[in-house]
From TrEMBL:
Residues 129-326 form the ATP-grasp domain. InterPro entries: Acetyl_CoA_COase_biotin_COase (IPR004549), ATP-grasp (IPR011761), BC-like_N (IPR005481), Biotin_carboxylase_complex (IPR050856), Biotin_carboxylation_dom (IPR011764), Biotin_COase_C (IPR005482), CPAse_ATP-bd (IPR005479), PreATP-grasp_dom_sf (IPR016185). GO terms for molecular function: ATP binding; ligase activity; metal ion binding. This is Acetyl-CoA carboxylase, biotin carboxylase subunit. Keywords: ATP-binding, Biotin, Ligase, Magnesium, Metal-binding, Nucleotide-binding.
Length: 503
């Protein structure tokens, strides 16, 4: 008997320790594999779609996530109660919690994800960089260890060259980062960074990197099995973000050459190998103006934006995760993987882009999703539902696929126009702004896109221009006596929309 015989058994019942669209997304793939599903839910999610979709469901406590979705013991108890052998944590919540991963293993259960050790190493940016040093991975010049003495750190910063970035070792997603432009500001900024890191992460360790001023944020999807096979599934471009929250992602990136793609892919595989990575993971890089790339960190979960990778590779990442967790070998090699077409994802948040992206609360009075060729909507809501205030305000992920980037963009615009949401402000209009923006269309953008180009008025202008065009065309049609009471006006109104991009 192999020592990990438990891991070799196929999974017959899977508990999904998450909610919303990702819980549904996971259950759909499980169902296709003949795997029974168990939902867990908080009191706020009694009527949620993921609860109805699952074969069984267990209530795990009150609405606040620290009393429900974040309580590892309750998740494990729900497995015991239902006989689920494995847990899929989705993203967020417990998905990158190494102590939870250890608890799961100790309970004799399978976590659909990497080992607790891999999670722990990658959970600390300095430990992650140290592990990756075994391989020849490009990293931003800076300190390899935590800086403690302010004077020593300042000296190091001067050597690296300003502007520099102070980062928290325990941070992630931009939390606890401080840009320092001049040596004079260093001491103060470092003290702030340390105290911020201490209060936010309970770990005051910080380090220094040269600040790459206009980077693109590019990440590589990897999959590793428990037999030592690791492949990459190419890149995702995630530069369109604000306050470190991604809004638009796409695959492939419009700037990578085949050579850079291959090099980045190999680096990502090496980073994963440095911790014997198993499951689905994402290796994050920044790319500078010279197309030089640098490893930043690794996310040890399935990411929100995984669908764009699924669409260009034809691989169902959830199924692969489940197969890997059951001990199966990857059924394909690197050479079997090819990029086909182009995919774009827009995160539809319950937020008001015209009002600094402030979260909007309310009920989905109208909710009709776009359909048709090349359109995928991953969501967890239907008409009449309220967006709970307790969790992430994402309503849906709107993903379009096309034979090339142009088709994926036109399809995204079409899908945004078809998407009908009332009762709540959303980022749909912002998505259209991005799709129509010259910088996005030409692929000439970086992480500063939103700050550089987007203003609240950008959306108003978009609305007003459309209203104006509609009015002008209506008047013209009326003058030409083409407007009857029925079909013609409707037919023509869709014609004028086609001209929209010219204005
Ligand atoms: C950087 C960087 C520039 N230079 N590191 C942001 C998220 C986290 N994973 C790392 N991030 C960055 N690290 C160096 N050395 C730029 C980012 C970055 C960013 C920084 C400030 C404001 C917005 C940003 C958006 C994306 C990435």
């Amino acid at each position: 008997m192999p020592e990990n015989s438990k891991l070799q058994a196929p999974i017959s019942k899977l508990l999904i320790a998450n909610r919303g669209e990702i819980a549904l997304r996971i259950m759909r793939s499980a169902k296709e594999m003949g795997v029974k599903t168990v939902a867990v839910y908080s009191e706020a999610d009694r009527n949620a779609l993921h609860v109805r979709y699952a074969d069984e469901a267990v209530c795990i406590g009150p609405a606040p996530s620290n009393q429900s979705y974040l309580v590892g013991e309750k998740i494990i108890d729900a497995c015991k109660l239902t006989g689920a052998e494995a847990i899929h944590p989705g993203y967020g919540f417990l998905s990158e919690n190494a102590s939870f991963a250890q608890m799961v293993a100790d309970a004799g259960l399978i976590l659909v994800g990497p080992s607790p050790q891999a999670m722990e190493t990658m959970g600390n940016k300095l430990a992650a960089k140290a592990a990756a040093l075994k391989y020849n991975i490009p990293m931003v010049p800076g300190t390899e260890e935590a800086v403690q003495d302010v004077d020593e750190a300042k000296q190091r910063a001067i050597e690296v060259g300003f502007p520099i970035l102070i980062k928290a070792a325990a941070g992630g997603g931009g939390k606890g980062m401080r840009i320092v432009e001049r040596a004079e500001d260093f001491e103060e900024q470092m003290q702030l960074a340390v105290s911020e890191a201490t209060s936010a992460f309970g770990d005051g360790a910080v380090f220094i990197e040269r600040y790459v001023t206009s980077p693109r944020h590019i990440e590589i999807q990897v999959l590793g099995d428990s037999h030592g096979n690791i492949v990459h599934l190419f890149e995702r471009e995630c530069s369109i973000q604000r306050r470190h929250q991604k809004v638009v992602e796409e695959a492939p990136s419009s700037v990578l050459t085949e050579e850079i793609r291959q090099k980045m892919g190999q680096c990502a595989v090496d980073v994963a190998r440095s911790v014997n990575y198993t499951g689905a993971g994402t290796v994050e890089f920044i790319l500078d103006e010279n197309l030089d790339f640098f490893f930043l960190e690794m996310n040890t979960r399935l990411q929100v934006e995984h669908p764009v990778t699924e669409l260009i590779t034809g691989i169902d990442l959830i199924k692969e995760q489940i197969k890997i967790a059951s001990g199966e070998k990857l059924s394909f090699s690197q050479d079997d993987l090819k990029i086909s077409g182009h995919a774009i994802e827009l995160r539809v948040y319950a937020e008001d882009p015209a009002n600094n992206f402030l979260p909007d609360i309310g009920t989905l009075q109208t909710y009709n999703t776009p359909k048709g060729n090349g359109v995928r909507v991953d969501d967890g809501f239907e008409r009449g539902m309220e967006i709970p205030i307790y969790y992430d305000p994402m309503i849906a992920k709107l993903v379009t696929y096309g034979k090339d980037r142009g088709e994926a963009m036109e399809r995204m615009i079409r899908a945004i126009e078809e998407y009908d949401i009332t009762g709540i402000e959303t980022t749909l209009g912002f998505g259209k702004f991005v799709m129509q923006h010259e910088a996005f269309r030409t692929g000439n953008f970086d992480t500063h896109f939103v700050g550089k180009y987007f203003k609240a008025e950008s959306l108003k202008k978009q609305d007003e221009t459309e209203a104006l065009i509609a009015a002008v065309i209506a008047a013209k049609l009326f003058a030409e006596k083409e407007v009857g009471l029925g079909g013609t006006a409707i037919k023509n109104s869709s014609d004028w929309r086609k001209n929209r991009l010219k204005y």
